[in-house]
Fold:
Amino acid sequence: MARAEFERVSKRFGDVVALADFTLAVEDGELVTVLGPSGCGKSTLLRLTAGLEPLSGGTIRVGGRSIERLAPHERDVAMVFQSYALYPHMTVRGNIEFPLRMRGAAREDRRRRAEEVAALVEVAALLDRRPAELSGGQRQRVALARALVRHPALFLLDEPLSNVDAPLRAALRQHVRELQRRLEVTTLYVTHEQAEAMTLGDRMVVLDGGRIQQVDAPGAVYERPANTFVAGFVGTPPMNLFGAEVADGALRVGEQRLDVPPPVRERLSGSRRVVVGVRPEAFTAAREDADGLVARPDPTRRELLGAETIVCARVGEHEVTVRLPGSVDEVPTRVAAPFGALHFFAADGGARLGP
Amino acid sequence: MRRIALLVVLAVAAADLLPLGLVLKQAFTPERESFAWPPTWLPRTLTLENVRTLREAVEIEGGLGLSALVAALTVAATLAIALPAAWVAARRPAVDRGLDRALVFARLFPTIALAIPLAALSIRVGLYNSPLGTGLWLAHTLLALPVAFLVLRGGFRSVPAELEEAARLDGASTAGAFWRVSLPLVRPSLAAASMLVFLVSWDEFGFSLLLQVTNRPLPPLVYYLTAFGHPGLASAVAALMLVPAVGVLLVLEPALRAGVFAGSGR
Structure:
């Protein structure tokens, strides 16, 4: 159990920057999820931390000790691979005991600890089987057990649930969360599934192009995305983003002219053009005289999902997605989002304007 | 369609087995009968006369021992070099390209073109006609290396690199990951490579003929016996050579079939 600190960690493969200036402190016992599209550098981050690739720059400290020059087995870091990487020629017991055997643990001690952790991940009945005889979910649990059996200071998970069937995934997600809480092990969990990143993480890191886009509690990332990338990446369906003009204390979107309230006016001062963001769920059916940003739904483009209805609508020349609660049989002619629900980003670079 | 396939199989089997049958027949019939005209397909008299002559007059034990020793040493030396080379090649594409090219280049020369300068060289360094076949097993090792390398590289390529990475994180050194994880997983390839290398050496003729003169391994012995008009004796030696070849096949075959890769991943 330890605090893990990353300081300006970077990795280049030739001319390609896989990770740039990654700085983050993971608190003792905290679970931080790393979310990003494929190729964003999230797997590279884990491989650098595990010692499978050398760093191009920066420092990684675990429990105050710099580990970036140590061999993988000297780092006290355990990892669960996306493919599980179970040793096919060993039994489940052999797999779980392997890290202990490599550290010279006594036979009795190995047995006891392997059985303990096997019980914890509910594979105690499978100890004498080989990986080939296990289901995907069982293999995943054995991989967890093998990583946890030696009580690592830092626990790395590389998309551990991506090979598990969808119905099982939610259950395993809960299981991983409970396990991590119980063992209070500092954890870095990499995924490209936002549901996983949001539900599992104490905090989440959004990564794109090898650079951190935002680090915050999942709720805060959703509420206040740091830039247009995060806004478009976190949330399903994604946040609507479109350009607008600011002039004379008013926001012009197509034909609409919205008065900008004074506190917001300050945030937008100095920008002529901004990017406006509005979540699909911020819209509600509106009367003719409603305030806020008005959109006109296209009744022919409606997706009924039972608990909610997704509707396509237009704001000026921009197309937006609207999410209405329940099964909407009759699509309203107007929907509106209050001004307070709008997000503003710089037209140049996409950084969030204001809090 | 199926009938045609059956015919093809039978034709191939016949082409393979007919000479083998003739060799076995000649080995266990009197030499006179080998020269009989018209030739007989089935033996009229069965005898161990040829085998007896081999033991008494030809002192077959020497040749057998030499061939076995050279083959065993060739297997050991070849695997000792090919195993690490194939492993590194399977993990590092840059090394792989270099080795690949070197091996293809080495295979461009016919054996006989290499055998003569190699014989000259072995005379100079004192390995010519060595009683323990030292020069010969070095030559056979060179000959067998590409075969072993290609088979083992294929084996290592099918072991996911992640397994070794997991082992290193679990506390193994790089060498430890190789011994405890990768090596057990390439057992089938190792068995195949051992078998092929053994047969390369056991059956090799050109180097055996030119590097050894009086201490003769079995293949040149077959040649000399035939050349001096003893087809029965030559066939008896050939039949003897079949025994370990078949034995190796039977011993290693189960390892070749074992599917040890299942279950490492998803």
Summary: Chain A touches chain B through 31 residues (CB under 8 Å).
